[in-house]
Amino acid sequence: MVEPHSITNGGYTYIHDVDKGPIEAIDTHHVIARRNAAKSVIFNLSSFILIANPLFLFFVKDKLAMALLWSLILCAFFVKLFFQKPIEKESVIIMPAFGVQLETHYRSGRIIRRFIPIDKILKAVVNECVTPVTCYWTLSLIVRGEEELTLVFKEFRPPLKLLVPIWKALCAATDSADNPDAFTQEGSGS
Amino acid sequence: MNEKKGERLIVSEVVVMTHAYGNRSGVRYMTGGLKVYYVPWKPFLMQNTLPTFYGTLPIIRTILIREKISLVHGHQAFSTLCHEALMHARTMGYKVVFTDHSLYGFSDVGSIHMNKVLQFTLADVTQAICVSHTSKENTVLRSGLPPEKVFVIPNAVDTAMFKPALERLSTDEVVIVVISRLVYRKGADLLVEVIPEVCRLYPNVRFIVGGDGPKRVRLEEMREKHSLQDRVDMLGAVPHAKVQSVLISGHIFLNRVFSSRDQVLPDDMIVLAEPDPADMVRAIEKAIYRLPQVDPQAMHLRMKNLYSWHDVAKRTEIVYDRALRCSSQNLLERLSRYLSCGVWAGKIFFLVMIIDFLLWSLLRLWQPDVDIEVVPDFDPVHRECGDFSGDMEDKCSQ
């Protein structure tokens, strides 16, 4: 069995696992969000301050402070929600000649899986996406019968260096499905 | 070269950044591999207000870092994206070039507002490009920029579209073409006096007047008064596509200009006159006299060589080179330039730049420069990628 190969970049850790099954190797690519210890400390602290402040006010004046207290607790709640990603890990499991399974593992333990048969995948593409505040790379699949691209990573935005090996693996799997004899064919243009 | 742009001079790569248009949004590659970012930024209702000013800072910073930009070139436009991009680029320490196209005047409210914004942008620009010498004088006076920093590169003409007629017109009859808006500013009143005089002096001269406007009535009246219906053709408004065909039906083109486009034509191709009917008649006489020596095809070839886009590009590259060699100024020196813009305007500009600098510093704390991924060198034409072995496909983003 091949040793799991891992790269860490940009707040994410990428682990590549190859499982030598009875017939074909199953290629698993995991992208795990790294918990930034410093960030968690800062935001826990700020949340605490947000809650502590109105409590202090409460002891000095009354009615106004109650309203302040509730609004600030709400703020703190949103801060926690916003800054802590609920997703722990996203995985791509490539089963050659069979299909691709996309998994999303939440911190709460919930796992969402989506399977796409290999003959439905036309191509895996890496796109540059532009938003009003930023620009990032995404890996998507062009699926037969669907109008929109299927994002491989729903919530995560891994850096390009982590996306490329997964993209290559996906291309290799889809191309070998098209051409069962040419197993080592390079990903070619449309 | 590009609108609201950034570019790398080392390998002469150009990246264009602009607003999204309709559903054209994201990254597109144009012919030749030109990369264009259509940023989906919808400005607030009043396009020029401060809230939009700092809003584009994150995306501009991201694009400048990921494309390894070394110089930002902004073209004058009503869109605030250009001015914001230049402001943020200066805050972040990039060299900035601004091209002043002088497309509007000074009298209406929109123009007055825009001129103030322009003064702000020009206060701290590395180099500036103007499209004529008069425009350069104007810019230098308005902004206080030292004249050595302002270059003149006239716009090229679409010489492919404006070709002379294949057959030369007969010289028995001289046709003078006027195409302009028939308003006071464009000298329509002068036409009313010049046309009858020229027609009287030269029986073989005909006029073709294209264009519409409030003064058209006066021209029609003049035509009737002097019975010039067969010698003066009033065409009315001429659609842009038909302009060339109207122009080639004449020998001489008569026009009144405010800006110095006249300065960009060689002396033998143009005759200038004061805005005075007698002087204009004298100038028309001179032009008619010169007519037999004129060869339209030769003239066209000369213009083609003088005003080609290749020439403009070469000259623009020289400006870029000069800009990159300029020394970097520190924050205090730059900020003091803004204070000299005006009594209260200077202070506002100063404040705007200080806030921009603070916001940029905060942004760098939040997301350090090293966290922004640099785009790998990628040649979309040949589909070759420098950093990664094998092809990397890139499609237009949704």
TrEMBL record, chain A:
Show which residues constitute the signal peptide: none
Which keywords label this protein?
Membrane, Transmembrane, Transmembrane helix
Q: Give residue ranges for domain Phosphatidylinositol N-acetylglucosaminyltransferase subunit H conserved.
A: 91-154
- Give TM segment ranges: 41-59, 65-83
Q: Where on the tree of life does the source sit, at the highest rank? A: Eukaryota
Could you tell me which pathway this protein works in? Glycolipid biosynthesis; glycosylphosphatidylinositol-anchor biosynthesis
One BP term from GO: GPI anchor biosynthetic process
Q: Which residues form a coiled coil?
A: none
- Cellular component GO terms, alphabetically? glycosylphosphatidylinositol-N-acetylglucosaminyltransferase (GPI-GnT) complex
Q: Which InterPro entries match?
A: PIG-H (IPR044215), PIGH-H_dom (IPR019328)
- The reply on keyword Ion transport is no
| Family that this chain belongs to | Belongs to the PIGH family.
Indicate what this protein is called per its UniProt record: Phosphatidylinositol N-acetylglucosaminyltransferase subunit H conserved domain-containing protein
Protein's organism: Escallonia herrerae
Automatic annotation (TrEMBL), chain B:
Q: Please give an example of a GO cellular component term from this record.
A: glycosylphosphatidylinositol-N-acetylglucosaminyltransferase (GPI-GnT) complex
**SUPFAM superfamilies recorded:** UDP-Glycosyltransferase/glycogen phosphorylase
The domain of life is: Eukaryota
Domain named Glycosyl transferase family is located at 169-249
Q: Which GO terms label this protein's molecular function in UniProt?
A: phosphatidylinositol N-acetylglucosaminyltransferase activity
What Pfam family does this protein match (any one)? Glycos_transf_1
GO process annotations (BP) = GPI anchor biosynthetic process
List, for all copies, the residue spans of the domain called PIGA GPI anchor biosynthesis.
19-108
- Name of this protein: Phosphatidylinositol N-acetylglucosaminyltransferase
